[in-house]
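seq:
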Amino acid sequence: MNRVRKDARGRILRIGEDQMPDGRYRFRYSGPEGERNAVYSWQLIPSDRTPAGKRQTVCLRDMEKVIAAEKADGIDGKMSRSITLDQMFLHYMEGKPGLKASTRSNYFYLYSTYIEPALGRRSIASIRYSDVRAFYVRMITSGVRMRDSRTGQYQQSRPFRVSSMDMIQAILHPVFDLAVRDGCIRSNPSDGVMRELKQSAVGRRKKRGLTEKEQAVFVAFIARTPKYQRWMPLVTVFLGTGLRVGELLGLCWEDCDFENNTISVNHSLIYRRLDGGKCQMHVTTPKTASGCRTVPMLSEVRRALLLEQERQERNGPCEITVDGRSGFIFQNQLGRLHNPSGLNRELERIRKACNRDEEKRAQLEGREPVVIPHLSAHTFRHTFCTRFCENETNVKMIQAIMGHADIATTMNIYADATEKKKKETMENLEGKIRIC
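struct:
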């Protein structure tokens, strides 16, 4: 017969409970692998007082309830309270040997720069849905404390757009999923966070392409301005193919078939950050499997490419080789290849100059100016897709030309682009349908 055990106050202790000589209560139990574990508290029940000078803890009986619930759910509570998000991220990355080198490098950069300073040292079990949401909201509204990978110093980041937060979610969500599968936590605390943020108006700015008027003003400005005329071939190919920035910057002459008027998209040029923090040009496969495609060469695109070919014949071809690739079509004034961020900065300078010129012209002509909104290389891709959707009803064809892996991406642009067309169609029906 088991002897009834009591604490110093004469209260009966349950199986696994005992009181130590220093007055602390202890509960011993077996872990998932049969290992012996123990938890301690100065309180047996919530109403007990913590001795003076001792750190207040959760009472032992409440701890036992948590342990019992974790056992019932098959969760290794001790591991979940000891393993940090940093450790779980490294564990996740070890299990992804098939990741592209550029993707792996980008994951480590984003994690160490933005996530690690905010959540990295916390135990995986302590991170709740509200913690992830608060972290995302801070990034969107005011930016977060980030670590510079080169200097190791901390500074405040610029606010993120909601759309840019998908990159952070793409890292955190699978890490938490792994913790769920490993029995560390019951549910993924990042589930539904992005959906909630996208439904709200916080930091939301919908991407769009240029309108027909904006496109015409921008292209006309480049064509007539000597300072920017050298950008005409590149902008024309962007607006006439809808290529991603890396696909266009990595375009080589061997990818252009002038006999059949097609462009083969089979690789992409990226400016990748190496482990030491240094950035370097690399050639990689397109963003998705559907990114490998053949794009028809419009007559304007053909003329722009031949114009660039003539220029290289006069000034000499591009002699740069990247990962065995050579014969690149586009290069900067120094004879080097463009990198995406540098190209976007240059496009922004051209946009501002274009708007200043347009405001002067509009004032002289007594009309409202056509102001070009913020743009980047991706704006040209979005603009091409918008023009395509306005003139083509076969959505699968649009998806194939654009190289979209998910048709939902194509459909979102198609819905926006055809909204104006629907209104025009209904206006044309005015008086032609007998309603009453």
